[in-house]
Write a structure and sequence with these properties.
2 domains, 5-stranded parallel β-sheet, FAD/NAD(P)-binding domain, 8 helices, 17 strands
């Protein structure tokens, strides 16, 4: 099925920044559509069920909709409820469970093919985040059902032997929560210490648990193989085989570079594969194609957050509106 109508704008991704772009497009009077391959704020939905944000609710607000939470820092559930309220309040135009599979440009119009339909648009904003694509370990056995790249809640791991892979916040949070719930926790860390980015109130706790042996940790270690009943580690002292029920690979996530390539967005030749874009307008090397949110940092996923990318919507719309509806400026 194809819709031959030419939209002013298609926003790919219905996370907080994608929604904020939709709000800016609404203010500008643009004919837009948000396409989301999963659910509303899909990345937040996939966060651990007991997660509390590091940011305050005020810093997560968009669209002049107040974010009221029980505590200063909201929970995952509160954030889901809040962004649904934003979506409903602004009557944003979005389609869910609709993934963009391919993009081509013809005579100044972009043609987007999804798993359901074909759309034509004058402009595109990519706001796809990075949490949907885990960084794989590329080891034998990684495709086993016992290997998880996302963590939801501790209950399934009670009295289980769990290997947590990673050294940053997610890995430390997961290891501690599982330990306190009664799991037998081991950590596998590639470097000789935990990440310096681990939250200051978490780091002493996890280090003390490792020091006393409550949580076992192998540093300067990689995984050679995962089997249904064990894991084989390459440690400084040689290979170690551990009995194992679950592997939680908290190895990080990355932007959808494959989609970037399909759109035609080029990346800088740096270690972070930073998407090439104008710092003032956020337009990429492709005309009328913009990037917004955390993906602007490429693999440097600790550079941008919701609170410091909320302004991206207005930056983009002030540039795009000049081209599509010159009389409109977004405040």
């Amino acid at each position: 099925m194809s819709d031959n109508k030419v939209l002013d704008l298609v926003i790919i991704g219905a996370g907080p920044i994608g929604l904020n772009c939709g709000i800016a497009a609404t203010k500008a009077g643009l004919d837009y559509l948000i396409l989301e391959k999963g659910v509303l704020v899909n990345s937040l939905y996939n966060f651990p069920q007991n997660m509390t944000f590091f940011s305050t609710s005020v810093l997560l607000e968009i669209g002049d909709v107040p974010f009221i939470s029980h505590n200063t820092k909201p929970t995952r559930q509160e954030s889901l409820e809040y962004y649904n309220r934003v979506y409903q309040s602004w009557k944003l135009k979005a389609k869910f469970y609709e993934e963009v599979l391919d993009v081509e440009k013809q005579e100044g119009v972009y043609i987007l093919k999804t798993n359901k339909q074909i759309y034509h648009t004058r402009a595109i904003i990519l706001s796809t985040g990075f949490y949907d694509l885990p960084r794989l370990m590329h080891i034998k056995g990684e495709d086993l059902p016992k290997v998880k790249h996302y963590y939801d809640e501790p209950h399934p791991y009670i009295a289980q032997k769990v290997l947590v892979v990673g050294a940053a916040n997610s890995a430390c949070d997961v290891a501690l929560e599982l330990y306190y719930k009664g799991a037998d926790v081991t950590m596998s860390v590639r470097k000789d210490s935990l990440s310096h980015r681990v939250k200051y109130w978490i780091k002493p706790n996890i280090e003390n648990r490792i020091k006393e042996g409550s949580i076992k940790a192998y540093f300067n270690t990689t995984i050679e193989e995962i089997t249904p009943t064990s894991v084989i580690l390459n440690t400084p002292d040689g290979k170690v085989t551990l009995a194992n029920d679950w592997v939680l690979a908290m190895t990080g996530y990355q932007p959808n570079f494959d989609l970037f390539r399909k759109v035609g967005i080029e990346s800088a030749d740096d270690e972070f594969l930073t998407p090439i874009h104008n710092e003032e307008t956020l337009e990429t090397n492709m005309p009328n194609v913009y990037i917004a949110g955390v993906i602007n940092g490429g693999l440097k996923t600790s550079k941008y957050f919701i609170e410091n990318t909320r302004i991206h919507a207005e930056m983009i719309m002030n540039d795009l509106a000049k081209k599509i509806k010159p009389a409109i400026l977004i405040e």
